[in-house]
Amino acid sequence: MVLGGGYTWNPQWAPSSNLINNSLPRLNEGIRLWRENPGSKLIFTGGVAKTNTVSTAEVGARVAQSLGVPREQIITLDLPKDTEEEAAAVKHPESTGDW
């Protein structure tokens, strides 16, 4: 699971250029762990932030895809807005309806 972090959405940028602060290292570690665990899913969390039109989870998913993770191996949880909500969404996936 990769928790949401800082990003700025610009569809004209390379996917990884949309991530800021500690977001890219989080994503890289998530992909590393996903590769070490065949058959696992990679979960990205986080809602839409500020004036962005794409959620944190979706930005992470798109970056992961650009780095070779198949979309069918990715789960996005677009509703959580903070760490507490992200943990609850993963603990009780039926509450989000996302997976």
Structure write-up:
The chain is mainly α. The protein has helices at residues 23-36, 56-66, 83-91, and strands at 42-45, 74-77. It has one domain. It has three helices and two strands. Strands 1-2 form a two-stranded parallel ribbon. Strand 1, helix 2 and strand 2 form a beta-alpha-beta unit. The mean pLDDT is 87.
Search tags:
single chain, 99 residues, mainly alpha, two-stranded parallel sheet, 2 strands
Number of domains: 1
Binned strand content: 5-15%
The major beta sheet can be summarized as: 2 strands, parallel
- Say how many strands there are: 2
What is the straight-line distance between the termini?
14 Å
Order of helices and strands: HEHEH
Biggest sheet strand order reads 1-2
Secondary-structure-based class equals mainly alpha
Cα-atom Rg, whole angstroms? 12 Å
Enumerate how many helices there are, as a single number: 3
What are the segments in which pLDDT stays under 50 over at least 5 consecutive residues? Answer: none
